Amino acid sequence: MQSIVKADREIAAWLRLTMAPGLKPTALRTLLASFGLPEAVLGQSFESLARVTNEASARAVLAAPGADFTAQLDAVLAWRDVPGNALLALDDPAYPPLLLTMPDPPPLLYVKGQLALLHTRSVAVVGSRSATPQGAEDAKRFSRAFSDAGLTVVSGLALGIDAAAHRGALSGRTGTVAVIGTGADVVYPPAHEPLTREIAANGAILSEWPLGTPARPAHFPQRNRLIAGLVNGVLIVEAAMRSGSLITARLANEMGRDVFALPGSIHAPLSRGCHRMIKQGAKLVETPEDVLEELGMPTTQAPAEAVDAAKRASRPAKAGSVKQPRQASLPLPLLAQDTATPPLAPRPPLPPDAQRLLDALGHAPTTLEILAARTEMDDSALQSALLRLELSGHLTALPGGRYVRASLSQADDR
User: Fold this and answer.
1) Which 3 state secondary structure label does DSSP give 168?
2) Which residues pair with 205 in a beta bridge?
3) Where are the beta strands (DSSP E) in 47-151?
4) 154: part of which helix (H) or strand (E)?
5) How far apart are alpha carbons 248 and 79 in whole angstroms?
6) Dihedral of CA 377/381/385/387: which sign?
7) How many Cα atoms sit within 13 Å of 175 on the Cβ side?
8) DSSP label at 118?
9) Which residues make Cβ contacts (< 8 Å) with residue 75, sequence separation at least 6?
10) Rounded CA separation 224/232 (Å)
11) How far apart are CA 76 and CA 18, in angstroms?
């Protein structure tokens, strides 16, 4: 009984310091290094605390806890006692070792799921919330390969690339860790409640925020810092020029982690962030094996034909075969024939099927089979939509039965 009371008293001290307004993690770590555990820090005089850090930190430590602190402590202790939940303080042997190499590791972590995953070699797979279909497929495929190779896949449970990365890793053999920007008892975005449950059961969810903390914009750069600190490398799949994923990559680079990026079309807005990172020194990768080799993980690289066959087999099959639509013979653009022609008028809206197909096309060359799987359109509707998009200049047919969006100058800016 005494040990239980002592453990609860230690958690109370940790919680009081982590929730002290104005006490930064770096200052707290300095105090812990000077005086020992939180109970010892709380027992120091103002002068002693200020001498080690500064007066503002000393005032924060010695300030009386809020009126609701007892209720918060009771909630934390009750949450900790739920099977599968754990509280990890800086002095806990189960605390993730890579986070201890950060200058400001969180003093208290809330974890749901498998603690062992926090001690494995890992790679972050992150990217845009507004992922293209191709980007989501790449994130899922790479993450599945990483998981099968023994790497834990870490991401931020956001929409788009993050969600695809988690799902890909869950289909592999190792698992995934979701680092979130809310309290561990809050699901954000709400649509990810089923995914959150699956990760808690077969992976781990990690948060540094007190229970009940809602999603706030300022929390996500903090979450990105934690993702960068937890892993051996970071893969950026898709990112705009001002993406939070680039923050993760920059922080990872500052911490000495490897940074990788997938290239894309020069016309794709979500490739620009990746290209920027490559220009700044990120490693350009084209296959999961590129990342695995850099991280010193064993690979079983298959011949290109086998890889292509495996990719095709992993996509949902449709009944029957899809015929290639006929190639349209288009006249030369009027602008090339008569330079005095006035500017083109805005295009009318596309029919729903054509717009659906264009959204599924993304910015990379795509085969008819992939488009059929993404849209679930029947053969007749698919051929009709492809022909309409080609005739209207929205897409271009390439050799080998592939299709790509028309260049921005030909289509999107018209």
Assistant:
1) helix
2) 112, 178
3) 85-89, 108-113, 122-126
4) strand 152-155
5) 29
6) positive
7) 19
8) G
9) 211, 212
10) 14
11) 13
Secondary structure letter of residue 183 according to DSSP: B
Domains defined along the chain, listed by start: 2-78 (1.10.150), 112-303 (3.40.50.450), 334-405 (1.10.10.10)
> Smallest Cα–Cα separation from 167: which of 191, 128, 203?
203
Distance, in Å, from the CA atom of 225 to the CA atom of 222, rounded to the nearest integer, reads 5
Q: In terms of Cα–Cα distance, which of 194, 142, 188, 192 is closest to 168?
A: 142
Q: Are strands 233-236 and 258-261 parallel, antiparallel or unpaired?
A: parallel
At residue 197, the 3 state secondary structure works out as: helix
pLDDT value for 347: 58
How far from chain centre, in Å, is Cα 346? 37
User: What's the rounded Cα separation, in Å, for the pair 245 and 239?
Assistant: 7
Alpha carbon distance 24, 57 (integer Å): 8
pLDDT reported for residue 49? 93
| 3 state DSSP class of 269 | helix
The residue to which tokens 């972050």 are assigned: 124
Residue 364 dihedral angles phi and psi, to the nearest 5°: -105, 150
**Burial class, 378, CB count within 10 angstroms (exposed 0-12 / middle 13-18 / buried 19+):** middle
Do 131 and 139 contact (CB within 8 A), yes or no?
yes
Closest CA to 257 of 279, 225, 220, 286: 225
Euclidean distance between CA atoms 297 and 324, whole angstroms: 41
3-state helix, strand, coil in the chain (%, to 5): 45, 10, 40
Whats the size of the chain, residue-wise? 414
Instruction: Tell the residue number behind the tokens 């800086």, with chain if given.
Output: 90
| pTM as predicted | 0.73
Compute mean pLDDT per 10 residues along the chain, 414 residues long, and list them. 65 90 86 90 93 92 89 94 94 92 89 96 95 94 97 96 97 96 95 97 96 90 93 95 88 92 90 93 95 86 41 40 38 34 55 83 76 83 80 75 62 33
Contacting residues for 269 by C-beta, under 8 A, at least 6 apart = 240
List the strands of the sheet with 366-367, edge to edge: 366-367, 402-405, 395-398
pLDDT given for residue 386 in this prediction = 82
Judged by DSSP in three states, 402 sits in strand
